[in-house]
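Submission sheet (multi-component)
Chains listed below:
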Amino acid sequence: MFSYRHAFHAGNHADVLKHMALVAVLRHMTRKDAALMVVDTHAGAGLYRLDDEFAGTSGEAQAGVLRLAEGAAGLPSPAPLLADYLALVRGFNRGPELRIYPGSPFIVQHLLRTEARDKLKLFELHPSDSRALAGNVAQLQAGRQVTVTRQDGFEGLKALLPPPSRRGLVLVDPSYEIKSDYGKVITCVQDALQRFATGTYFIWYPVIPRPEAHDLPRRLKTVCNRAGKAWLHATLAIGHEETGPAALAPEERRDPGMSASGIFVVNPPHTLRADLEAALPQVVQLLGRGRGQGHLVESAG
Ligand code: SAM
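Outcome: structure written.
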């Protein structure tokens, strides 16, 4: 518990998929006048340096947002969502180099409207990250729009649903460092749908050789289909550089780190599928490393 620090992974391919889709969802949800509440159950530290020892050691941003930004500059016509996401990330940086990467709390807050209308509720359990998050949020001077609570986000969510405005987005983005997180995500979505059936629930998960990870989207589809809820599922795989026999097991590959991840959105905006279908092929083109690279977008309802 608590060995996971998102600073090592900030701006990697998984953040690219998650944050790009988050931008698409929020752009749509903020088009309607009515007030919106966003809950981030696993918020992280909020802002990350891409040139510190965390990101520098892992090199994950190098193979993610940094490579994407460089490559996108050469695309004849970048997809609108890809351009939107990269412009948003650039907006947190002063010069042309990307040194700062916004985590989900800062991406969401940037897209929200006035304090009086939209609210953002952040949960983060890690002592250092919740302190860093509170400090970063204080710099925003967002008044009462953003609250930070050091509490288990799965538990904290319950008291917030349904939101007073009856319009809400919930981002569920655990680190899955403990296997029980997979089951907790399912229970969380089932419970949240009972409390607030029309909410939009956005779940991120790793595509790794672990039965619980493999089963998660299948179980979420079952929950949605039984409840009669629309869903969208998308994955991004950057693949592996070929360094040996094609039959190499994942744990034997030179880069055994996660090379794919997925998002599952319950009650997605109707525009999300088209947004992702336009952007993800370009992301694969720019970030793909070889065998296994690709993307998937599927939806129902
Ligand atoms: N959502 C962030 C983003 O996109 O920028 C990244 C979050 S990171 C993948 C997961 C975070 O959840 C970690 O910072 C971890 O400390 C925190 N965490 C782990 N278990 C938690 C829990 N039960 N409740 C709240 N936060 C938790």
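Remark: The longest helix spans residues 13-29.
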